[in-house]
Design goal:
The complex is a heterodimer of chains A (about 50) and B (about 750). Chain A is mainly α. Chain A contains 2 helices and no strands. Chain B is α+β, with helices and mostly antiparallel strands and about 750 residues long. Chain B folds into 5 domains: about 90 residues, Alpha-Beta Plaits (2-Layer Sandwich); about 250 residues, no CATH class; about 90 residues, Calcium-transporting ATPase, cytoplasmic transduction domain A; about 120 residues, 3-Layer(aba) Sandwich (Rossmann fold); about 110 residues, Calcium-transporting ATPase, cytoplasmic domain N, CATH 3.40.1110.10. Chain B is about 50% helix and about 15% strand. Chain B has a 7-stranded mixed sheet, with helices on both faces. In chain B, strands 7-6-8-14-9-12 form a 6-stranded antiparallel sheet, with no helix packed on it. In chain B, helix 6 packs antiparallel against helix 7, helix 10 runs antiparallel to helix 11 and helix 12 runs parallel beside helix 25. Classes of the chains: A mainly alpha (about 50), B alpha+beta (about 750). At the A-B interface, helix 1 and helix 2 of A face helix 1, helix 3 and helix 4 of B.
Chain lengths: ~50, ~750
């Protein structure tokens, strides 16, 4: 069962990085326009400058 | 529309030399709009960025300061086919945004913690029945504690704060037993971990938090959506005014830019956008939006006028006064304060349940501990069982029972074109047994229409409509609506105080006062048939006709009043208009109980007397004079065309030209109320089964986890039924053309 000593922290770390990623996405406003994001993916002129 | 208003007050200048403007855009209905708008604006030289939020229909534009004017941006959007209105986000909305983000963060933390702890808890449960070593179990329990304690400290804040607030005001709400349960369960779990016991409740605690936060977040999201749409509508309505500068120059400005002491010019046919005192000029104004009175009032120098009045005959120069200085407004505000204070005493259903529930739960837990000690169990076992009772009764389902229904039902209302201001309005709406209507602008449409259009020769009516397009007179605007050909005639001459005339097909055409058109006899006869209407005459060569113009009933008013009555609701009219104007409308609708000439205080007195008869009154009104009555009534509705102050008082605002939303609001509220009760019933039934089990000591953390998620899911699924089977056709759906008050300036 010694394997748990590093497996469990690894699992936790993975979970925490997921949480951190969510917090980042929230902070950078990725949930401000959920419907817009769904339709923007279809537009192909996102290369405009 | 040659004149464009000066929008510079809406522009935010940033330090790096860029300017920023927020706009609410009308007419966005497909994904292609995004490219069209953003691409179109970015092609303007100087525009740095344009970003459309497709969810909220708001556009943020940035440009290098000085390169583009805001009017230019709005003009370009107009050319692309979208009407855009400058938008200034309101404080309430920003506050709600912040709160929603905060709740989402709490939800994420609780979700992360509950999943990881569940991972550990499931291992312990399966290990307990197989071959887990005590060391491994302790390790898992300590890990769970390590995750749970900080997670609860962070994600539990919404509940801790609300419970503290309630306790500080010497009340209890649903959050008090939640917080007590959470804290006790955490403490016991930590103590149990220290004593390397078999069971801890970390998983139950964080799961509970996760479910509760889901409910809170959904509630918040729905309220935010409503506020966004309401904010957009408010900016669509934003009015403009002509300000007279010191130099005598006249500038068109949004009313938001006006300050006390400014001088404003109001031309005939324009709506007065501010409260003020007449400096010069004389005219007749229609104050029906303010007082409900449809007869026009003559004003001259030193008269007080209110925002929302329509200027009829002459040009006025006004001095802008701060809101609340007029006699009517003083009275309205004083009455409002009293009425609003009376209303806050209403206690929500959930809090009423919590008031009884919390003591019962805490007594049950104490009784459990005492019984176990009395029957010879150790203090430790007795305490653990008592805590199990607390956890299992922790009102998870109870706390979800009401908000989830509210969220789903306000979604249904949203589709019916009704925006809810207050979440607890459902409970109050469902109790309604009397509906009191205001007349002007509520039962009738806020705009004028030609009522005898059927009696007039169609060709003549069309010609009158086309000619009316060239006039600024408010009565002519009503006639202009009848024109299907929207091209005005060429070379139309406006004769001030008389009307308009033009030569069409070699014959002279006139629209205006009966004398001007030589149709006095005809007009007199028409007026005799409908003494309340205003008359406007039309002549084309030898042919003459008299058109009767007044505020017509909302098309479905009769049917809706009848349906309301079939539901057993008493209908009444309380209006500020004179009795002889109400009588025919009351007769048409079959409403026997009506009162005219009511001042705001009279309306409140009338509502109070209804209240003392034990009636629960729904007040539907729009005028400034209705605002105190709306606040005093048990629950209130107002049309979107209502005065701002009035809308702020109403529990809900409905869109469109029809009265149907009043009926659907009541229907949806009744359904919601039924489901809330059912949900509370389910939650109580669950407790009736679970509490005896917990009392006897059968509730392990595994059982608690199953019971809690099971009851929460059941309650949530039941709440989804508040959506209703078939969404009703939504004539007043949140689209631009259905907003009657969007008078072009």
């Amino acid at each position: 069962m010694e394997v748990l000593i590093y497996l469990v922290p690894m699992a936790l770390l993975l979970g925490l990085s997921g949480l951190a990623a969510f917090m980042w996405s929230l902070k950078s406003g990725q949930y401000d326009d959920v419907q817009g994001a769904a339709v923007r993916v279809l537009s192909d002129d996102d290369m405009r400058k | 529309m040659a004149e464009t208003p000066d929008l510079s007050i809406y522009v935010k200048r940033q330090d790096d030399g860029t300017a920023h403007l927020d706009l609410a855009v009308e007419g966005i209905d497909c994904a292609a709009c995004i490219d069209e708008i953003e691409g179109g604006l970015c092609n303007l030289p100087g525009v740095l960025d344009a970003r459309l939020n497709y969810t909220s229909h708001r556009l943020a534009v940035e440009w290098r300061d000085g390169d583009v004017s805001p009017a230019h941006v709005v003009g370009e959007l107009q050319r692309l086919g979208y009407r855009a209105h400058p938008f200034r986000s309101r404080l309430v909305e920003e506050e709600e945004d912040r709160r929603a983000k905060w709740l989402l963060k709490c939800l994420a933390v609780a979700g992360f913690a509950s999943m990881n702890i569940m991972l550990l808890a499931v291992s312990v449960w399966s290990g307990n029945v197989t071959d887990i070593t005590p060391e491994t179990r302790d390790f898992f329990h300590w890990l769970a504690a390590l995750i749970a304690l900080p997670a609860v400290a962070y994600a539990g804040q919404p509940f801790f704060r609300s419970a503290m607030n309630a306790l500080r005001n010497r009340r209890t709400n649903m959050d008090v037993p939640i917080v007590i349960g959470i804290l006790l369960a955490l403490t016991v779990s930590v103590v149990e971990t220290i004593h390397s016991a078999e069971h801890t409740y970390f998983d139950s605690v964080v799961m509970l938090l996760f479910f509760l936060l889901c409910g809170r977040y959904l509630d918040q999201a729905m309220r935010r959506k409503t506020r966004t749409v309401a904010g957009n509508l408010a900016s669509f309505r934003a009015e403009v005014a002509h300000r007279i500068e010191e130099s005598g120059e006249i500038v068109l400005l949004p009313t938001a830019a006006l300050e006390t002491g400014n001088r404003v010019l109001v031309r005939p046919g324009e709506r007065i956008a501010v409260d003020g005192i007449v400096l010069s000029g004389r005219s007749e104004i229609d104050e029906s939006l303010v007082t409900g009175e449809t007869a026009r009032r003559a004003v001259q120098a030193d008269s007080q006028v209110y925002a929302g009045s329509m200027n009829y005959s002459g040009t006025l120069t006004l001095l802008v006064t701060a809101a609340g200085k007029g006699t009517l407004l003083d009275e309205v505000e004083r009455l409002l304060e009293n009425a609003a204070a009376a209303k806050s005493r209403y206690v929500q259903l959930a809090d009423r349940v919590a008031k009884i529930y919390a003591p019962v739960v805490h007594t049950a837990a104490a009784a459990t501990a005492l019984t176990w000690i009395a029957t010879g169990a150790s203090v430790h076992d007795a305490l653990i069982t008592a805590i199990a009772v607390l956890i299992i009764t922790c009102p998870c389902a109870l706390a979800l029972a009401v908000p989830v229904v509210q969220v789903v039902a306000s979604g249904a209302l949203f589709r019916a074109g009704v925006f809810l201001n207050a979440g607890d309005a459902f409970e109050r709406l469902a109790m309604v047994d009397t509906v009191v209507f205001d007349k002007t602008g509520t039962l009738t449409l806020p705009t004028m229409t030609v009522v005898n259009a059927g009696d007039v020769h169609p060709g003549l009516l069309q010609a009158a409509g086309r000619l009316a397009l060239s006039s600024h007179h408010p009565l002519a605007a009503a006639v202009a609506q009848t024109a299907s050909d929207r091209r005005p005639y060429d070379d139309v001459v406006e004769e001030p105080g008389c009307g308009v005339r033009a030569i069409v097909e070699g014959r002279e055409m006139r629209l205006g006062s009966p004398a001007f058109c030589g149709a006095q006899i005809l007009a007199d006869r028409a007026v005799a048939s409908d003494p309340l209407a205003s008359v406007i005459a039309f002549s084309w060569g030898e042919e003459q006709t008299a058109l009767l113009v007044r505020q017509a009933l909302r098309t479905d008013a009769g049917a809706i009043v009848q349906k309301l009555r079939q539901r057993g609701l008493g209908c009444r009219i309380l209006s500020g208009d004179r009795p002889d104007a109400i009588a025919p409308i009351a007769a048409a609708l079959g409403i026997a109980l009506w009162h005219g000439g009511c001042k705001p205080a009279d309306k409140i007195a009338m509502l109070e007397s209804l209240k003392s008869e034990g009636r629960k009154v729904l007040m539907v009104g729009d005028g400034l004079n209705d605002a105190p009555a709306l606040a005093a009534a048990h629950v209130s509705l107002s049309p979107i065309s209502a005065a701002d102050l009035t809308q702020a008082q109403a529990d809900a605002v409905f869109l469109g030209d029809r009265l149907a939303p009043v009926l659907s609001t009541i229907e949806i509220a009744c359904r919601a109320q039924r489901l809330m009760r059912q949900n509370l019933g389910i939650a109580l039934l669950y407790n009736l089964i679970a509490v005896p089990l917990a009392f006897l000591g059968f509730v392990t953390p595994l059982v608690a986890a199953l019971a809690m998620s099971g009851s929460s899911s059941l309650v949530t699924l039941n709440a989804l039924r508040a959506r209703g089977r078939v969404p009703e056709p939504t004539p007043g759906a949140p689209s631009s053309h259905s907003v009657p008050a969007a008078q072009g300036a």
